[in-house]
From TrEMBL:
<keyword id="KW-0067">ATP-binding</keyword>
<feature type="active site" description="Proton acceptor">
    <location>
        <position position="146"/>
    </location>
</feature>
<feature type="binding site">
    <location>
        <begin position="183"/>
        <end position="187"/>
    </location>
    <ligand>
        <name>ATP</name>
    </ligand>
</feature>
<keyword id="KW-0472">Membrane</keyword>
<dbReference type="GO" id="GO:0017111">
    <property type="term" value="F:ribonucleoside triphosphate phosphatase activity"/>
</dbReference>
<dbReference type="GO" id="GO:0046036">
    <property type="term" value="P:CTP metabolic process"/>
</dbReference>
<dbReference type="GO" id="GO:0005794">
    <property type="term" value="C:Golgi apparatus"/>
</dbReference>
<feature type="transmembrane region" description="Helical">
    <location>
        <begin position="522"/>
        <end position="539"/>
    </location>
</feature>
<protein>
    <submittedName>
        <fullName>Golgi apyrase</fullName>
    </submittedName>
</protein>
<dbReference type="InterPro" id="IPR000407">
    <property type="entry name" value="GDA1_CD39_NTPase"/>
</dbReference>
<dbReference type="Pfam" id="PF01150">
    <property type="entry name" value="GDA1_CD39"/>
</dbReference>
<keyword id="KW-1133">Transmembrane helix</keyword>
<feature type="region of interest" description="Disordered">
    <location>
        <begin position="663"/>
        <end position="700"/>
    </location>
</feature>
<dbReference type="GO" id="GO:0016020">
    <property type="term" value="C:membrane"/>
</dbReference>
<dbReference type="GO" id="GO:0005524">
    <property type="term" value="F:ATP binding"/>
</dbReference>
<feature type="region of interest" description="Disordered">
    <location>
        <begin position="560"/>
        <end position="585"/>
    </location>
</feature>
<dbReference type="GO" id="GO:0004382">
    <property type="term" value="F:GDP phosphatase activity"/>
</dbReference>
């Protein structure tokens, strides 16, 4: 199934674990052939499934001092999962990438290089995945690159690239900002308004994609990262700050960022004994105090060398929140929806959220813990232990760090949105016109920066409209015309998948139906889809379609005379089964040449033998796949070319032959029919098409 599909594998090697992602997209050349005018202006359609992801812990960075173990102890299970979900005949054409983020960035350079070398060798020696360049496929990517990939993924899923006219936020702006926070770092990426983009042109990245029509699509994006500003690293900094501020002889330190009564060690592990010999943190549940204590971690007092700045003295162009609407992923989603909200919450409201956090953190820990007493909710209990600090950190980063307006308390001006009313109402309903919205999925697909990387790769496979020498490459780099020196290529070029045919689409269409069925609910729809899949599976072979087509024709001829709607039914069955000849085809040939110059070419039949298939040329095989036949020129064999009378009954034994026989009779002049009346000739049987003057129609 899916013979016209391409696959890609990417491993997100984060600080807490490694997550495998598998993506699939239709071969760009095939998709371009079938696309309409609107779709030609779009990027390749990338698909994934929930079962195509798998995460294991701990992270790759934990193998820094034992790199030889990273393959068999860490990557092996992920590779096996990928091979279970990718067709065997697609593996060699499937690229594999491992992109390490903040966890690996914290390792010494020599450990990073040792791990990268071991990872690349493991893939090359133990898999058949495509990995032509280790430096390109196994990387420790900068935070700015991670943010850029996330920006690409978000805008791709939201439709800001393919349908900019439906996402106009005012001032000619149609893309969304991206915020990401993990365990060790945080990222921001957005396209500044035109004024700021011109003012800070040297700070922007030029991102180049390619739509299905082969045209380049360019965007100018600012991206920045803050290493150490992820929730886990921020918590470590916060605890160190508490310890440094208290007496060295103290055995217990009050912690306003934990629920009242919760006791943990400095690493966050619960401590039950009150007489513990180690230093213990004791929660007080004072959330307002927690906000004050975490604020200094933003580094707002760090000198700003290039105005304006946000966190830790980092330069960021001014953000126009009238047109820059941000979505937040990872911890922005988990911290707002883990214990304080539900997936049904459409937008982030600061006043509502802060009240929920205060109410939760002021509870006694014993009452909170009772809600997670069962073994199945042990993971939720861990989230509850950390929730108050994470919520405090998120609020500070969002509002005092980045400057997101406090919806519910602060008001922004109302921009004039140049958009259709329906699109605007839909965006408002989803919260995408608010200054900030935390998300986990968009239209059922997880928002992950890995999708952005794979989008670049798939776009790089689209054949350019112009020659390869003139076409600009897909990728990103400094905001300069052409191809800057630091340009990072997508890592892909277009090449054909090999021989393919219309029949290859049956598998792709069946998979598309499965995907649609999974996105809908209702047993009736599911049953209908299963019936369609069964029909697709049974009739995927052309001989079965021919037999059904022949049966329908015999039934129609043995019934009442043809009705007026016969032509419409014939057209439908021809398009469905592909093997029947149409008289109109031969009538067109008669208009182009004399009837006595032509003899029928070969006819596609379900009775083909293995011998005839092996003897046929490549062009004849091509004709069998497409189900089309063409006449061939022959001036000398009309003496043997007549049709014996009474042969129509026998012709019914072969699919579609009645139509072909009638057409043949019209091509033979009447005088030749009379001269050869009663004779039988083998020339009357269909022959394999070998005409050098007429070639089959090209495949899609």
């Amino acid at each position: 199934m899916g013979k016209n599909s391409r696959y890609g594998v990417i491993l997100d090697a984060g600080s807490s674990g490694t997550r495998l992602h598998i993506y699939k997209w239709k071969d760009p050349a095939k998709e371009r052939h079938e696309a309409d005018a609107d779709e030609l202006k779009s990027l390749p359609e990338i698909k994934t499934r929930k079962e195509w992801t798998k995460k294991i812990r701990p992270g790759v960075s934990t193998f820094g001092q034992k790199p030889s173990e990273v393959g068999p102890e860490h990557l092996n299970g992920l590779v096996e999962h990928a091979l279970k979900n990718i067709p065997k005949d697609k593996v060699k054409d499937t690229p594999v990438f491992l992109m390490a983020t903040a966890g690996m960035r914290l390792l010494p350079t020599d450990q990073q290089e040792a791990l990268r070398s071991e990872i690349c060798s493991y893939f090359q020696e133990n898999t058949d995945f495509s990995l032509p360049d280790c430096d390109l496929h196994v990387q420790v990517i900068p935070g700015e690159t991670e943010g850029l990939y996330g920006w690409l993924a978000s805008n791709y899923l939201l439709g800001g690239f393919d349908h900019p006219e439906k996402h106009k936020h005012g001032k000619g702006h149609h893309t969304y900002g991206f915020l990401d926070m993990g365990g060790a770092s945080a990222q921001i990426a957005f396209a500044p308004n035109s004024t700021e983009a011109e003012k800070h042109a040297n700070d922007l990245k030029l991102v180049r994609l390619r739509t299905l029509d082969g045209e380049p699509q360019e965007h100018k994006v600012f991206t920045a990262t803050w290493l150490g500003f992820g929730v886990n690293q921020a918590r470590e900094s916060y605890v160190k700050q508490l310890v440094d501020a208290h007496d060295a002889d103290a055995k217990e330190i009050p912690d306003a960022c934990m629920p009242k009564g919760l006791r943990t060690d400095l690493k966050g592990q619960p401590v039950k004994q009150k007489d513990s010999k180690d230093l213990v943190l004791v929660g007080t549940g004072q959330f307002d105090e927690c906000l004050l204590n975490t604020y200094p971690l933003l580094g707002k007092d760090v000198p700003c060398e290039d105005e304006p700045c946000l966190l830790n003295g980092q330069h960021v162009p001014a953000i126009d929140f009238d047109v820059n609407h941000f979505i937040g992923v990872s911890e922005y989603w988990h911290t707002t929806h883990g214990v304080f909200g539900t997936k049904d919450d459409k937008a982030y409201d600061f006043a509502t959220y802060q009240k929920k956090v205060k109410d939760f953190c002021s509870q006694d820990w014993s009452s909170i813990a009772s809600q997670f007493s069962s073994r199945s909710k042990k993971k939720d209990a861990k989230f509850a232990e950390e929730a108050c600090f994470k919520a405090s950190w998120l609020i500070n980063v969002l509002h005092d760090g980045i400057g997101i307006p406090r919806i519910g308390l602060e008001h922004t001006s109302n921009p004039v949105h140049n958009s259709t009313k329906s699109a605007l109402e839909s965006a408002k309903d989803k919260g995408y016109l608010d200054p900030f919205k935390p998300v986990d999925t968009i239209d059922g697909i997880e928002v992950s920066w890995t999708l952005g990387k794979m989008l670049l790769y798939a776009a790089g496979q689209v054949p350019p409209k112009h020659s390869a020498e003139e076409a600009l490459p897909v990728g990103f780099g400094s905001n300069e015309p052409g191809v800057p020196a630091d340009f990072q290529y997508a890592g892909s070029t277009w090449r054909p998948l090999g021989n393919s045919s219309h029949d290859d689409d049956w598998g792709d269409k069946a998979e598309d139906l499965i995907d649609k069925a999974k996105s809908k609910s209702g047993s009736g729809l599911l049953f209908f889809v299963l019936v369609l899949l069964a029909a697709f599976y049974f009739f995927r072979r052309k001989d079965r379609r021919h037999r059904l087509y022949s049966f329908l024709r015999r039934s129609r001829r043995s019934a009442s005379p043809r009705k007026a709607n016969h032509r419409g039914l014939s057209t439908i069955t021809h398009k469905l089964f592909g093997g029947g000849s149409r008289p109109a085809s031969y009538e067109r040939v008669m208009e182009e040449g004399e009837a006595d110059q032509f003899e029928l070419g070969d006819v596609d039949s379900s009775d083909d033998t293995d011998e005839s298939e092996s003897a046929g040329s490549s062009s004849s095989r091509h004709g069998r796949r497409s189900g089309l036949t063409t006449p061939k020129l022959n001036v000398e064999r009309f003496a043997d070319a007549m049709i014996p009378s009474g042969s129509s009954a026998a012709a019914l034994d072969r699919s579609g032959l009645v139509v072909r026989t009638e057409s043949r009779e019209r091509l033979v002049p009447p005088n030749l029919q009379m001269l050869n009346a009663g004779r039988r000739s083998r020339a009357g049987s269909p022959t394999r098409m070998k005409s050098p003057l007429m070639s089959p129609l090209p495949e899609d």
